[in-house]
Amino acid sequence: MSVFHLKYRPQKLSDLDLADVADRLRKYLSVKEIPQSFLFAGPKGAGKTSAARILARLINCEDKIEGEACGVCDNCKDILSGRSMDIIEMDAASNRGIEDVRSLKEKAYLSPTKLKYKVFIIDEVHMLTKDAFNALLKLIEEPPKHTIFILCTTDAEKIPDTVLSRLIRVDFRKGGREELKRSLEKIITGEEVRITTEAIDFILDKSDGSFRNLQRSFNELVLSLGKELSLNQIEDFYSKRSGSYSEEDFENDLIGKEIKKILGKLEKMADDGVDFVVFRENLLVYFQKKLLAYFNVGNEKVKMDLKALESWINLLIRAAKQEKETEIDQLPMELAVIDFLGDIEDKNCNPKEIEKQKETEDLKKNDKLDGVKVVTIDVAGLNIDKVMESWGNILMTVKPFNHSVEAFLRASRPVELDGRKLVLEVFYPFHKDRLEEARNRKIVEEGLLKVLGVELAFECVLGKSKKEPLIIHNDTPMESVSEKLADEEKKEDKKDLYDVAKDIFG
């Protein structure tokens, strides 16, 4: 049996799963002088490489039919079979250095052996080094007339602006439900698979929006279960792939801080051969719905607070990146759990606090933070006024541990108490960055606990204009604080200059 994502790979523009992408490419090809440098940007499995190959064939076809490559001329046949020496594909994840780009540059200046255009398809182009990008920039600024460059990426933000500005960008996206359904139905029809509508809907619900992943998953289903598929069979198949650890049970164990229990289950899943990519993707979809429900989008029951949800989702995204870097399938998920439960001590996941946090969020929408003190009564009768009254004692408690941290705090203003989070207004990005460093954050939060008797996390926000700090009476004159802060900023500036010089001169 053929591999479905290869057998049913689009061969013409009209075959592309994303019709809007096909329409854009038609417009670019309809002009007298077609662009020579493209950027195809979007998630994995969206059809970027397939579209690049279709474009390469279309611009070199000898006998186009209604704006599509004929598929039967010598040029089309050579490209389809992979025999053409004028279609060069390069994986920038493996060939990312300046020497690789110089080699590509040498090939670019050679005339095509047979085709009208020599086409260079560079996959994962964002992985190129800085020097390699500089070399590539010179090539796409003034490309030889017989060349077309198609750069593909899943992370366009990592491409230098100087390169981006020279490219015609075509954005790809995850498939919508109807687009995914049409893609799947092509295979169902082509392979003569018997499957119910309910079973198709179940498969689409499990999809992550990737056409390629959908095709691969369906390929596994047919190989494992045959060409007559029932809903019960498919549900059992997916259950075995993602394990018996349900998303809801996983969430409850996270909230209960059952780290030993979670890690034990993950190890058991690894022994059972569970696909951790599928498991992680299911969790990501589950918690994304929880995040939306926090803002009243959907009907999911919210159990975590907003900060905890954001933190966990970010860790799941990080785990997805780490999956490519380790051969221990369960390790990225285990690290995510350990990091989350190690960090969650300063976050409140108690469901009883959710409504209170939502009310505070609504209050913040109506009150501007710029110089306005938002008074919120919170835990143990503590409010922002009491924090401000105790600010001098907090500074004196912090000072023995780190003079600089005390100085940064002295130049800030406590402006809001939101649940167990204290919001500090600071007036320089440098101060914000230093206060939020892990070691300094710990010092501040321990000082808050000692003085106020309540565990608080804190968040720094940049004020729009400089304001007078709180009037505090203790043994540190304001003049010495100002001098101390100025010295810190000078040291940081010198460090930045040193780093720049090191990058330039080695």
**Assembly of the depicted chains:** single chain
Q: Which stretches are low in confidence, meaning pLDDT under 50 for 5 or more residues running?
A: 345-349, 363-378, 473-486, 492-506
Number of domains: 4
Class of secondary structure makeup: alpha/beta
Spatial shape: globular
Proportion in β-strands: 5-15%
The first-level CATH class of the largest domain is given as: Alpha Beta
Approximate helicity band: 40-55%
Radius of gyration, in angstroms, nearest whole number: 29 Å
Q: What do we call the CATH homologous superfamily of the largest domain?
A: P-loop containing nucleotide triphosphate hydrolases
Q: Got a strand count?
A: 10
According to CATH, what is the topology of the largest domain? Answer: Rossmann fold
Report on this model:
This protein is an alpha/beta fold. It folds into four domains: 4-171, P-loop containing nucleotide triphosphate hydrolases (Rossmann fold, 3-Layer(aba) Sandwich), CATH 3.40.50.300; 177-242, Helicase, Ruva Protein, domain 3 (Orthogonal Bundle); 247-351, Zinc Finger, Delta Prime, domain 3, CATH 1.20.272; 367-491, GMP Synthetase, Chain A, domain 3 (2-Layer Sandwich), CATH 3.30.300. Helices cover 53% and strands 10% of the residues. The protein has 23 helices and ten strands. The chain has helices at residues 4-7, 19-29, 48-60, 74-81, 98-108, 130-141, 161-164, 177-191, 197-205, 211-225, 231-242, 247-255, 259-271, 276-294, 306-322, 331-343, 354-366, 384-389, 391-398, 403-410, 429-435, 438-452, 478-505, and strands spanning 37-41, 87-91, 118-123, 147-153, 168-171, 194-195, 228-229, 413-418, 421-426, 457-462. It has a five-stranded parallel β-sheet, with helices on one face. The radius of gyration is 29 Å and the shape is globular. It starts with a helix and ends with a helix. Residues 345-349, 363-378, 473-486 and 492-506 have low confidence and may be disordered.
